[in-house]
Each structure stands twice: as structure tokens, then as C-alpha cells.
Known about the structure:
Structural class: alpha/beta
Mean pLDDT: 95
Strand content: 25-35%
Helix content: 10-25%
Low-confidence stretches: 1-5
Amino acid sequence: MGFAEPAFAADPAAAPQDAAVAIHADRPGARLDPHIFGQFAEHLGHGVYDGIWVGPKSSVPNIHGFRRDVIDALKAIRVPVVRWPGGCFADEYNWREGIGPVAKRPKRVNTNWGGVTESNAVGTHEFMEFSELVGADAYVAGDLGSAPPREMAAWVEYMTSPTDSALAQERIANGRKAPWKLAMFGVGNELWGCGGNMDAVTAAQETRRYAAFIKTPEGVPLMKVASGASGEDYAWTETMMAKAGDVIDGLALHYYTVPGGWENKKPATGFDEHDWAEVLAKTVAVDTLLTRHGKIMDKYDPKRRVALLLDEWGTWYKNEPGTNPGFLYQQNSLRDALVAALNFNIFTRHAERLRGANIAQMVNVLQALILTDGAKMVRTPTYWAFDLYKDYQGATVLPVEVDSRWYGRGEYGLAAISASAVRDPQGVVHVALVNADPAQGSQVTVKIDGVAPGTVSGRILTADKMDAHNTMDAPDAVRPQSFTAARWQNGVLTATLPPKAVVMLELR
Length: 508
């Protein structure tokens, strides 16, 4: 990344021996779908404009209008898929207003996010080019809430048809000869809310109707993703699977970590340890959600053909002082990196059903990986968590058992140590260890069945303060370091973790 990583070594005497991890490499599990490490870019605040797009005439270095620094940063962590244009923005988006000469595209008011003018400068052609520049699959969200089925069907044909149909010829006239690869298409978004305020039965019926008209050329696969539940709404999943499970390929789920609740959100920095524990405890609650929604899906789809997709997840704090509340701009600290890592460990356990996830959001919005300010850009601690886990993409899950002490403050608690493990296609075993305790280190013993002792190396993400974060003036305050406090002893791997840390080990 353009800098050398300093080494981190811990003092074994400073950490109690209070966690044991068992990894069953001799009983490999499912392949971890790369889409689990996906991104989300909504037309919201500065997520698209200024975040990824500055225009081809900008003084900010760009490729056809897209920020070169952002593209390079995203390519470095191998972003597998990007969801666009929303979110709630998608529920009122007319794709035709985003094609053709930019100067002739109509301007609209973004009624969902800040009441600002939407220029439509970034439309279908621009987004698909951005996906190709990054090397990511495209996940496009369609408007079921306010548009007829014909509009959604026409958009898919415009993007995917290789024929001489009127829509394909229109695409060609607008500068794109070959059809794009469209990996995923959302059949609506949050139909229970901004996508139409529907009940579950209506939503399922509408999903069946719209899905019937979404067609791609023969032999061209497309995952049709239905609008799924919010959080604990298990009845929604039950109804959607019962009435529309046979016509969809994926079912979305949205879950945010919101300290203080929706009406009294807490700030992203300047928090105490009670707030730290609240955020991490609310984060790991997603394990129960994935389990229960997955069991409902198993009733109707025992072969697990339909994927569960957590296509909106992440922290949602009070917006930063002085910013437009509708822009959802928040700082991103070490705590958010632990949120990401805890989620990744949980996602790994659900790999058979969970085959996609999209953090909200990629740049300048909510739990962003990247923050920009004019020509400046900074990678957040969450970005570095994605970087630590990038070799998990497409790897084989290794079953893990964790025996850990409990950590908590007040009514909020969770296991102090979280872990996951995979074997990548080259045979390298990667072991992730997270210490959620911000005050106490931990010596972790890792017993691995099916892996002979060899070399171990690692990287760690930690900092002195719970709310340590990167700024434009100090962009590398939180970044990975080399980790040397792990060693093989008598066939057992021992790692000494400092407080509030994410460690990724590589075993060869």
C-alpha cells in the first residue's frame, strides 16, 4: 500500500490464557462466496458524487470521471460486487434519465436523501464502467415500488441483450456495443418501507409478477434478488419464501447496528466503554438473525438454491456535527473495524446459505471504507478490516469452535474472542482472531486438526484508543502491522492478542 508495516509483538505474561480455539481442517465446509465481501454505492450524500465520481474535467486524477485513488484502493481489496443505485434512491429511480448525453439528462430532486439536486451524471453506462474498472460484479437494484414491470424488464434488456432489438440498439447508440455482465438484479428494495409500504403478502405477489418479466438472453444467468426482511421480521421471510420462493434466486435481509436506537443515535467517536460494548453486542446479534431466517428458508428450500443476502449491513451513528443529516456522513473508528471483523467471522459460519453481503456504504456514507475531501482520500479502519480478510474470498470454510470468557458492560455482552478459518485455493490456511475486550489482552491456544505445524505469519489491526480513527491530516493512524506474537508449541498454535484487536494469521 505504499508503506512498510511496523511489527507488533505482545508480551505473553501480560495476557491471561483464557481462550481456546479448535479448527477442524480435516472436515472442510462450504466455499465462502466472494460476494459476502461486497459493497454498496447509493446516490446518497457524497457516496457517488465526489466519492467515486468527480467528472472527466476534474483536477482530481480520474479515469473517465471516476477517482483514480478510489479505484486503486478498491482494486487492492478485490471488491467482488457493488450494489447500485440504492437503497431507497432506487425506489424512485428512472433508469432512462441516466442514459444518453449527460448534458441532456434531466435533473431531479433526491427526495430521500437531503432534498438535493440529482444530476443523473452517473447512470447505467457510468456505473457499469465503474464496476469494470474496479473488477467487481454489478448488482443493480430495480424500482418495483413506483414503476411498472415493463420499465424493469426494459432496463435488464438494455443492459444484457446482444440482439438487434430496439433497446440493444439504443445502448449501442449510447456508446456500449457489447452487453454488460449483470450478475444480480434486485426485484425492488425494502418493499416494507420506502419501496412501497407493502405488507408481506402484497410484496410477495408483486415480486412474483415483476420477476416474470425480468428476462436475459438464453444461457445468460442472472440472480433475481427479492426484497427481504428488516432485522427480526421472520414473518416476512416466511411469506416471501412460501409465495415467491420458487421464482427468485436470492432473498435480501437488512440489519444495522444502531447504538442508542433509531431515535437517539450515538456518535461515531468520543464514546465510552459502555457504548463500545453496546455496538459490538448489537453487531453479533446478526448471528441469530442469519440462523433464524435461514431455518425458515430451509423449510421451503431444503437444497438451499435460494441465497440469503445481507445486502445492507453496518453501523449507523449520529451524523457528524455540521453535516447534512440526510447525507449520513459519519467518522469510522477502530470499533468499526471490529464490527466488520465480527461480522465476517459470523458470515463464515453461515456460508452454505449466506452467499452475499453489502456493507453500507462504500464511500462517505455510514460505515464507509473510504472518506474523501476534495482531492484527498483516506482509508478507514473498516477498509483495513476488509483488507485483512481479502484472502477469504472463494476460500473453503474450516469449522471452528471457540471457548472464550465473556466480555460486557451493563446489559451488553459478547464472547471476548471470536474466530474463523478458511483454506484458500493455494492451500494456505487463514485464521482470524478478534479480541472484543478493549482493556484486557488474551492468550489464545489454537488446536488445528488436519494441519501439520509449519510457518506462521500474521497482521494485526489495533490502536491505543477505542475511537482511534484516520483523518485527512493523519491518514495512517490506524493501519495493519505485522504480527509476531504467534508461534507453534508442541503442535498447538498460541497467539497473544492485545486488547481491541483484529489478527489475521497465515499458516503454511
